[in-house]
Write a structure and sequence with these properties.
Number of strands: 0
Radius of gyration: 18 Å
Order of helices and strands: HHHHHH
Shape: globular
Distance between the termini: 23 Å
Helix content: over 70%
Largest sheet: none
């Protein structure tokens, strides 16, 4: 709880400050701050997921995942989306390759979004996670980054694993929805299938 409070305080300090800056004039400062805000949001997801997973009650875990974790996962996507906009060209188009000095942070941000999306055991969230992993794998294949070799390997593994998990959850929805008159809570994804 103390660490979560510290993360929220940092977020509360940085967000109003960066929103006052002109992104064109202070591009590097805005980019770095937006990345930091994404990292804070990502740390909050990891911390909350760890707290929830320690709850021995399966029903309570499932409820907390939807009510407490899902908004934080959306927060990660939102924070990094603001970071990604700092790479758009004058026409609002994302370049096929970002600046060499920023490429590691750019891919790390996509990796954090993929991990966060993978924390929610729903078909839609896992599909978003898979899309992120596929983007990272394609980018690193075209523009290798030596420092991210480990992440590239994880992406390849997740691209292989996630479609099966998505299909399994979708099938579970269909079977359980029929048994429950069309209403069903998302099943929990096992720890071994979460994005690392």
């Amino acid at each position: 709880a103390r660490r979560m409070a510290m993360l929220k305080r940092r977020q509360a300090l940085l967000l109003p400050a960066v929103e006052q800056l002109n992104a064109k004039v202070y591009q590097q400062i805005v980019r770095q701050t937006r990345f930091d805000l994404g990292t804070i949001a990502s740390d909050m997801v990891e911390l909350k997921a760890m707290i929830i997973s320690s709850d021995p009650n399966e029903i309570r875990r499932a409820k907390k995942t939807q009510t407490e974790l899902a908004p934080l996962v959306d927060g990660v996507a939102h924070a990094y989306a603001a970071f990604f906009t700092t790479f758009l060209d004058a026409n609002g188009v994302m370049p096929t390759k970002v600046d060499e000095g920023s490429d590691e942070a750019f891919i790390t941000a996509h990796f954090h979004v993929a991990r966060a999306r993978g924390k929610l055991p729903t078909v839609d969230s896992l599909k978003e996670s898979l899309k992120e992993y596929e983007f990272i794998a394609a980018y690193l294949k075209a523009h290798p980054i030596a420092a991210l070799a480990g992440e590239a390997q994880i992406c390849d593994e997740m691209i292989e694993l996630l479609p099966r998990h998505i299909a399994g959850i979708a099938a579970g929805y269909s079977m359980r929805a029929a048994a429950c008159g069309g209403r069903v809570d998302a099943p929990e994804l096992s720890t071994s299938t979460r994005a690392r």
